[in-house]
Amino acid sequence: MLKLKYTNDSIECGTDEAGRGCLAGPVTAAAIILPDDFNSTLLNDSKQLSEKNRKLLKPLLEDCAIAYSVTHVGIKEIDTINILNASIAAMQRSIEKLNPQPEHIAVDGNRFKPFRNIPHTCIIKGDGKFLNIAAASILAKTSRDEFMEKIHEEFPMYNWKKNKGYPTKEHREAIKKYGITKYHRTSFKLLPDQLTLDLQ
Fold first, then answer.
1. DSSP state of 157
2. Per its UniProt entry, which superkingdom is the organism in (predicted)?
3. pTM of the model
């Protein structure tokens, strides 16, 4: 059973991101404050849940949250400030939109930057330990998946509807065949042999 949150007394938000390891599309983060009486046996780290269950949970979480917010950070910004900074920026912008503002931030992972003097705790694999981080992971993942399904219509040859921009064999083959789009992260190593030098 996941615990509700990291602290006992304060108004705490959970935050998480999705799409950090993708070759295309935004990095998306969510922040959410759940009520103290919130309970769910289904809720878990979004990576452990089927797409069907994530889609089922999304409206339930949105309905019962005290506050929630989702933010996409786009390709240009990712390529300019790097993926780690873009992920943190997406989380911070989501937190910024919460009303009420949290008194504590529970962050999935091991990297974050101080935000508005609000204390934060980084929790490795936090989305498998705390319901508020798991809830943020669901909102981030489902929102990003929707975004990727939408841009799939524009460039169906990359099959983003299925791979969501992750570096699958099929996605890399399509990059090899068709080149890159405005949604690809040019700062990423898009093909395995992209950076090898022929020294002979």
1. G
2. Bacteria
3. 0.92
Q: How many other C-beta atoms can be found within 10 angstroms of the C-beta atom of residue 62?
A: 15
Which residues are known binding-site members? 16-17, 108
DSSP 101: P
Residues annotated in a binding site for a divalent metal cation: 16-17, 108
Structural domain 12-145, CATH architecture? 2-Layer Sandwich (3.30)
Sorted by where each begins, the domain ranges of the chain are 12-145
Q: What is the 3-state secondary structure (H, E, C) of the chain?
A: CCECCCCCCCCEEEEEEECCCCCECCEEEEEEECCCCCCCCCCCCHHHCCHHHHHHHHHHHHHHCCEEEEEEECHHHHHHHCHHHHHHHHHHHHHHCCCCCCCEEEEECCCCCCECCECEEEECCHHHCEHHHHHHHHHHHHHHHHHHHHHHCCCHHHCHHHHCCCCCHHHHHHHHHHCCCCCECCCCCCCCCCCCCCCC
What is the spatial distance between Cα 75 and Cα 147, in angstroms, rounded to a whole number?
A: 13
Asked whether the beta carbons of 71 and 84 are under 8 A apart, the reply is no
* 21-48 pLDDT, tens digit each: 999 999 999 999 999 999 888 887 677 8
How far is residue 123's CA from residue 130's CA, in Å, rounded to a whole number? 9
Q: Kindly state the helix (H) or strand (E) to which residue 67 belongs, with its residue range.
A: strand 67-73
